[in-house]
Amino acid sequence: xxxxxxxxxxxxxxxxxxxxxxxxxxxxxxxxxxxxxxxxxxxxxxxxxxxxxxxxxxxxxxxxxxxxxxxxxxxxxxxxxxxxxxxxxxxxxxxxxxxxxxxxxxxxxxxxxxxxxxxxxxxxxxxxxxxxxxxxxxxxxxxxxxxxxxxxxxxxxxxxxxxxxxxxxxxxxxxxxxxxxxxxxxxxxxxxxxxxxxxxxxxxxxxxxxxxxxxxxxxxxxxxxxxxxxxxxxxxxxxxxxxxxxxxxxxxxxxxxxxxxxxxxxxxxxxxxxxxxxxxxxxxxxxxxxxxxxxxxxxxxxxxxxxxxxxxxxxxxxxxxxxxxxxxxxxxxxxxxxxxxxxxxxxxxxxxxxxxxxxxxxxxxxxxxxxxxxxxxxxxxxxxxxxxxxxxxxxxxxxxxxxxxxxxxxxxxxxxxxxxxxxxxxxxxxxxxxxxxxxxxxxxxxxxxxxxxxxxxxxxxxxxxxxxxxxxxxxxxxxxxxxxxxxxxxxxxxxxxxxxxxxxxxxxxxxxxxxxxxxxxxxxxxxxx
Length: 529
Known about the structure:
Layout: H1 5-11, H2 25-31, E1 43-52, H3 56-67, E2 72-76, E3 91-92, H4 100-106, H5 112-131, E4 136-138, E5 146-148, H6 162-175, E6 179-182, E7 185-191, E8 197-204, E9 207-218, H7 227-233, E10 242-243, H8 252-259, E11 271-272, E12 276-277, H9 289-293, H10 298-307, E13 318-320, H11 334-342, E14 348-354, H12 355-363, H13 376-382, E15 388-390, H14 393-403, H15 412-427, E16 452-458, E17 460-461, E18 463-464, E19 475-477, E20 483-489, H16 505-528
Parallel strand pairs: 1-2, 1-9, 2-6, 9-20, 10-17
Antiparallel strand pairs: 3-5, 4-5, 7-8, 8-9, 11-18, 12-16, 13-14, 14-16, 15-16, 19-20
Helix pairs in contact: 3-6, 3-16, 4-5, 5-16, 14-15
Keywords: FAD, Flavoprotein, Oxidoreductase
Cofactor: FAD
Domain FAD-dependent oxidoreductase 2 FAD-binding: 48-500
């Protein structure tokens, strides 16, 4: 069932994000009382296409539009382009392959039309960015994945030249004649008497101003920084989750679209992310606009949001919630396990390991990737993350209660019973048939060799799946089921392409971004005539 515009406005959170904060739906409603098409001030800039958001999708849209002959302005809240993709390991592509029938069989809740569009155009997209001079390197022979900027030597500490690639993407846009306004945040769409979108209002350090345009592309990302929206759409404790993204993703583009009459997509109940060790004091403020803008080496952010999470070691231990009970098959992919953690009390869990499992982790290359080197758990401790250690399961439970944040709510007796029952099932070969099975690529291993470890985690959100409803031309669909003239959107401002599990985050943003630049330019040219 489609969500209604009224329900969305009622539930959307009003979150500030730095000095140029988006003022929320209620403020936009106040602006809407002005005559349609009459900005509060005379337009400071005029262009064919204006794009809100310079993440990987917005960059693809910007370069595509300027190549198609448009006069393009790109506005970005941060002082750097690239968005959350700056934090990525750097490999991107359709996760289940570029053959849509095969991918759809593995992601059957995805939008079939948008999904097919991404798969069918992935090969030509890679050819396009290669033609721009952006270096890519095949992840493995026959793999649809490519490394952004190429694979980096292991001794350099990261997996690819991700940020260099994204900054070069922004430079290509500028070299082709585009204009980028950094430290500038889109806050309101402008419309004419017919409801067609004619530009936007933006804010920078000097205040607000209007940009007049024939077409607008919303590439502002998702809404994981809006805690009220997280609670409304994901779960009652999702406001306690960690947003693993640039700190500007408060759903502002979605809210602007709704205020202009847009319809919402499905998929608001699922998302992509990894369990995040908690408490998060080790982040040292990088999840705030001020802290993020002060980061000198973005690889440091990647390490904290991705490189040191236990997403690659979770299948080798067991997860228990604060009640001390297993609730998920640890062999599922990290994103699915993470979504189940989000539904637990306080959106929290504990990963329980023993020394035998830790030795497997030490010997497994993926668990000790080049960005970390050596022992992942040692690395987590060095970064200031909480890892509880004890010589018996009973002592481990007592230490969890005594030494971890909110540990008083942890049921140590249940945890000990859970581990005992799990060990018995594993020893008898029944791990796959117990009430919560343990099935995956790594065989279940008994937790019986001291010392024992517990890593407290909270659900993390890197990308949200719900947003504005779009068609295969990336046009935003109104509540009347018709495209809103002049308005386009790219995931995550657009939604519905994924549902349940992820399969095309950066690749989907990229392909649809490129398409959006082309079709919005064609519209702008026809509108000009």
